[in-house]
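2 proteins. here.
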Amino acid sequence: SYLDPKVLGKTPKNFGSDAESWEENLSLTSKIKQQFMEDTLSAVIKPYLDTSLDPVQANQQIQEYCFNVSRKSQMREWVEKNPGKPIPSEDSFSVKMDSFSSCFCFRVGSGN
């Protein structure tokens, strides 16, 4: 998921943690990941919250965010320039490319 800081090439140290990897101190690194995900998702849809954002708009904004992140991916660039060739190890790219991104948005409430 492009909301996961690990997928984006970030480490716990980017957030001020002493942990060397996301697998260390799971109680702390899980909280860091969760906060990053919440903050990123909020930033993606926040500009539209005051304009009665509907589920379709929310979905479009999240998909656009994912598309823009993958556009910056060295892996995506490599795949586009080398069609049909085997993809090298993901470890050689800073930003990983999700096989696909999906999003489900629901309106909760009376619907009035």
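next one coming up
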Amino acid sequence: RRVRGFSGMEIEVACRYGLPIISIILNNNGIYCGLDSITDRNSIPVTALSPNSRYEMMMEAFGGKGYLVSKPEDIGASLKDALQQKVPCLINIMIDTSGPIPKIVQNVKH
């Protein structure tokens, strides 16, 4: 079953109630598109988030298990291990930020 959330605090609820769910984040450092690095914090586009955010550490802070995946070949092992856990898990998969920009954002002024 799919559960959608966006604030990050849904992981606290999952941990509080011991829900053995697996959250998978395809992390491109933003919403639609992100940045590889930040040189000026005042010029971050509204669609970008802090580069290389460690969302799996949020899960661990609340008592779940987190995985950081930076290579495609590591996804399977992380998912296999997460399926064995009895606590909520979060797999933070870092993806290429230089991929194509979705059409919905191409006309947004940054």
